[in-house]
C-alpha cells in the first residue's frame, strides 16, 4: 500500500466517497431543483409568447380601429361638405328671393311714386293753366290799359289741353 499512497493516479477510498456524494447531490439537484426552475422558465416563456400574441392582436385591432376612424372621418368630411354646399345653395336661393322681393317692392314704390308725381304734376299743370288764364288777363289788362277777361279759347284749352 505504500505504493498507492505515494501515487496520486491510483484512486483511494476518498475518491469513491466524493464521487458518491457528487452523484447523490447531482441527482437531488436534478430531481428537486431543476424541475421547478424549468417550470418557471416555461411559464415565463408562455407568458412572453402570450404577451407577444396580445401585442399582435392589439396592433391589428388598432389598425382596424384606425381604418374605421379614418373612414368615418372621411365620411364626416364628405357629409360636412355636402351640408355646407347645401347651406350655401339655400343661402344663395334665399338671397336671390330677397333681392327679387326687394326689387319688386322698389318697383312698386317707384311706380306708386311715379303715379303720385304724375297726379301732382297734372294737378300743378291744371292749377297753372287756371292761374295762367287769370294772370294773363290781368297782365294784358295792365299792359293794354283796358279790362281783358279770359276768353272762350282758354276755356277750350282747359277742356282739351290743346290750343284751337
Automatic annotation (TrEMBL):
As recorded in UniProt, coiled-coil segments are: 92-131
Which InterPro entries does this chain map to?
Answer: ATP_synth_B-like_membr_sf, ATP_synth_b/b'su_bac/chlpt, ATP_synth_F0_bsu_bac, ATP_synthase_B_chain
| Record membrane topology | Single-pass membrane protein
Top-rank taxon: Bacteria
Give me the segments passing through the membrane: 6-29
Main location, first listed in the record: membrane
The job of this chain, per UniProt, is described as: Component of the F(0) channel, it forms part of the peripheral stalk, linking F(1) to F(0). F(1)F(0) ATP synthase produces ATP from ADP in the presence of a proton or sodium gradient. F-type ATPases consist of two structural domains, F(1) containing the extramembraneous catalytic core and F(0) containing the membrane proton channel, linked together by a central stalk and a peripheral stalk. During catalysis, ATP synthesis in the catalytic domain of F(1) is coupled via a rotary mechanism of the central stalk subunits to proton translocation.
Q: How does it assemble?
A: F-type ATPases have 2 components, F(1) - the catalytic core - and F(0) - the membrane proton channel. F(1) has five subunits: alpha(3), beta(3), gamma(1), delta(1), epsilon(1). F(0) has three main subunits: a(1), b(2) and c(10-14). The alpha and beta chains form an alternating ring which encloses part of the gamma chain. F(1) is attached to F(0) by a central stalk formed by the gamma and epsilon chains, while a peripheral stalk is formed by the delta and b chains.
Q: Which PANTHER family match?
A: ATP SYNTHASE SUBUNIT B, ATP SYNTHASE SUBUNIT B', CHLOROPLASTIC
Sequence similarity: Belongs to the ATPase B chain family.
Return the protein name.
ATP synthase subunit b
Organism, scientific name: Gordonia amicalis
Its gene is atpF
